[in-house]
Structures are given as C-alpha cells and as structure tokens.
Amino acid sequence: MKKISRVLPLLLASTSFGSLFAASDAKAASMDQMAIMEKQIRAMQSQLSTMRKEHDREMKRVHEQLAQQRKAQEQDPYAYHRAVTGNAQNNTTAQSSDGLRLAGFQVGTSLPSTQQTSASAYASTPYGQLTGTPSARVLDLYGPLHRGQVQIGGIRVTLGGYLEAATFWRSRNSTSDISSQFGGGAIPFANNPNYHTNEFHQSERQSRIAMLVEGDITHKLRAQGYIEVDFQGAGSGSNSRQSNSYVPRSRVFYGQLIDDADDLYVLGGQSWSFLTMFNHGMSARDEQVPLVIDAQYVPGFNWTRNTQVRIVKGFGHSHYHVGISVENPQQVISVGSGGNYLPPGAVADTYQNAGGNVFNPSTNYSTDVAPDIVGKVAADPGWGHYEMYGLLRFPHSRVSYLGSGRSKTDVAGGGGAGMVLPLEKAHKLNFQVSGLVGTGIGRYGTSNMPDVTMGSDGHIKPLPAANVLAGLYGNPVKSLQLYAYGGMEMTRSRSSFNAGGKHYGYGNPLYNVSGCDIEGAAASTCQASINKVVQGTAGLWWDYLHGDYGTIRLGAQYSYTYITSFSGVGGTPHTNDNMVFFSMRYLPFQ
What is the dihedral of CA 294, 298, 302, 304, to 10 degrees? Predict the structure, then answer.
C-alpha cells in the first residue's frame, strides 16, 4: 500500500506535466496557423490593390480611346462612314486583344466593328454639321453614350440643334425677319418709299431644337422618329413691340422604318421635299442645303418642307438608289395685275379658298385634287454624287355657270438633275450644281415664283419656269469654312391675253410699268410681273471655341439680289437688294 501511495502522486504529476506540454504545443501550432492566414490575407489585399490599379488604368485607357474616336469623328465625319462601309464583317460586338468587350467598337483601333448598313445612313452633310442635326445611326443601342444622348430602355434619344443670335441689314426695307423675301414684289421697286429705306433687325428665331429617337426592332430592322422645331412662326397676335412672343413651328416631323438587310426605307411625315438634292445616297437628314445664314437660303435652291410619304430602295452596295415620294400639294397663284377673268356667262371661278377649321383663315389654299409626285434616281459611284429627278403636279380649278359648271385639271411638272463633286480632299473643297425646268414648278424654288396664272378660259394655267443653283464650299483650315453660291429663278415666258378692253394674265406687255422708277408714283403705274430673280452670295463660318462643352460658331454672309420684270408700257422695271448677315451659334451637342 505504501508503494502504491508513493507511485500514485508520481503518475498524477507526470500526467499533469504531459497535458501542460501538449497544450503548449497546440497553442504554438494555432499561432502559427493564424500567422499564415494573416500573411495570406495581406497577400490577397495586395493582389486586390494591384488588380484595382490595373482596372483603373484600363478604364482610363478605354475612356481616352473612346474620346479620341469621338474627336476624330467630329473632325472628319466621313472617316467613320468609310470605316463602316469598308468593313465586310457583320459583328455587332467587338473584342480587343486583352479581352475587353465594348458594343460596336474595337478598342485599340480606329476601325469600329459593326453590322454592315447602307452607306448613306452614315453620311453627314456640311449643313447637318452646321446646324447640329443628328445624322449618324447608333450602332448598338446599349453601347457607349455620347454627348447629348439619353438611353431609355431599348430606345436611344439623340438631341441636336443650336441657339442663335443673328443680326442683319438690308438696303431695301422688306419688313422681313431672318428669312428674306425674293419673289412676288417683296423687294420693292423705286416707286415704293421702302426702296429708299434700309432695314436692320436682330433675331433669335432661327434657333433650333432637334431630337432623334430610334430603336432596333430586329437585328436588321429599325425605327426612327425625328423632330425639328424653330421659332419662325407668327400667330395672329405675334409682334415685336414688347414680349416678342412668336410661336414655334415644326420644321420637320416624321417617322421612318429602315430595313438594312434590303437597303430600303419608308418615311412618313413632314420632311424636306424629295426634290431637294442629297449630299450622298437618299437618306433623310442628308440633304444638300446651302450653308448660308439667311433662312430663306438662295434663289435657285429647290425645296419645300411638307407632309409626304416616300419609299427608297438601294442597290449595288448602296451605290445606287431609286425612290418615289407623294407630297402635299399647294399652288402659288398669280392672276396678274388684271385680276380674275370670267368668260362670258360665267358667274364664278374657283381655284383657291380661305383656310377653314385648323387651316390659317387669313391665307388662301389652292383647290388641289391630287398630290405632287416626285421620282428620283441617284448614283454614288465612288467620286461624286449624281441625281436625276422628275415632278408631276395637278393644278385644278372650276368655272361655274348658272345651273352648271366645268372643272379642269392640268398636268404640270418638270425634270432636272444635280451633282456634288469633291474637288480637293484635304480642304474638303466641293462643287455643287442643280437645276429644274418645267411648268408650274415655281413653288419648289426659294423665291416662290408663281406656279399658275389666269387663262382665257377662266381656269388657272401653269407657267413655264426654270431654276438653277451652283455653289462652292470648303475648309482652308479646319476651323474655317468658306462658301459661295450663285442662283437664278425665272418665269421663262409670259402668259397673257386681252378681253373686253382689259389686260389679263402674267407679264402682259400692255401692263403699265411707267411709274416703277418714280418715287411716290401710284401702284397702278407699276403693274410689274417678276421675270427673273438672280443672287450671288458668299460667307464664312468660324469655329471660335470647341470642346466638351460644345461648339461656339461665328458666321457672316453678304448677298446681292437683282430682280427684273417683264417689259410693259413704259419700260422694263428692275430692283435690287444688298443684304448682310451675322450669326453667333452655340451648339451644345456638337
């Protein structure tokens, strides 16, 4: 028992010391594991920090490259068009060499990879750049947004337009705002005191708001809506006395369905007439509009902006296009100084009526029974743009007798051609010329020469006319654009008759024009019928400031207009006008 009592404490002591040593070893091992974990955490933190820095560097590089692409596109809009049309791939998503994916762009190269579309969809006209018109199609509706763009689901909205402060002076007082008047006696003859009075005005009313809305229906089918508004409308209460409360007006307002696979589009709404020459192809917002400040443009320029439905089809990889447009009709009527003529037995002639319902009651609307029809073919073979076009019109009138009447519809219209030639690429020097000849075509010229006059049967009669415009424009330096245009519109021959000792029609040689050059002479001694309107004009646009805030652009224009009348009793009257325009425009989205 004594041995057992001595051994038992020894066993207990050895067990206690063993447990102590084991606990000490376990604690040491646990501390080693914690140290290892802390080291691993620090390593992971260092890795994450490195990855974050690499990510920031990569994103900075991507943003810089996108900014460079945007700047390059703004400086040379045609480079983007060439890149797109020269790419045979149909990929909508590109991947860079390091695996970064950006919809519609190849990062690290100047050539974007995108689906192949019609060439004209990417054309950007000088006028479009001048006015901040949204023109380029969005390649990927979920790709990067540019200045002035908003994404709403699958719809992309692109804003455009400009704010303008304009100043202008005319040597003859025609009481006109930024849109000058050329035909119809708007520039007074010397018998009128306004011939001897200058005119000075300032205006912001050409300022413009534009919005393009577009979305893809399928990979190759897309829808677009476009609206452009300015402030050149005048309501019955509009004036310049105090609040200058002029009403806005819709310049263009239309929708399009565009089929890229078949190179075809359908447009409906108010747009530039299909007769207006294009800069490239036949795409909407690609019209070749003169670069002048004057909102009435230049005599010889063929245009209207009115409601229409058109269809355009492209061929040969968009090098050729053909189209037709059905457009809202309206006749410019000048019965002449002799006034209306009623044939024997007639009680009334009807060729126009004052506006009713939501038409303007203070103006007249012609009694049209069919739309104007415009057909056009265009070619872009590689150097230059070429067009041929035709116009059909159907002026209508009715002569009433007691208990009966007779209606008459004439067939009028004409044909023409135009071209735009790039003469020198480095300075974007271009030459353009266009013309139209036919009968009843006055409405489609800037001067609004008469379409029809009074005939000896009491019905309206189309007048023969012709328009021509030539221009030259270019950039001697990147920030400076110069332009010059010369244009003419004319009524090619008189259409007149005499009955019952009175003189009727347009340009009757027996009209009294002896007082046209005498100030204060009675209007009855200046029965002028405009024969020809000719204008020469030149001007410039200078990009004064350009950056992420947009563009501030300054412009100046001078024009000289010369107008002659058909000869009559007392001579051949003529008049003229010198006009000077200045403009400062802010384009926030360009």
Answer: 20
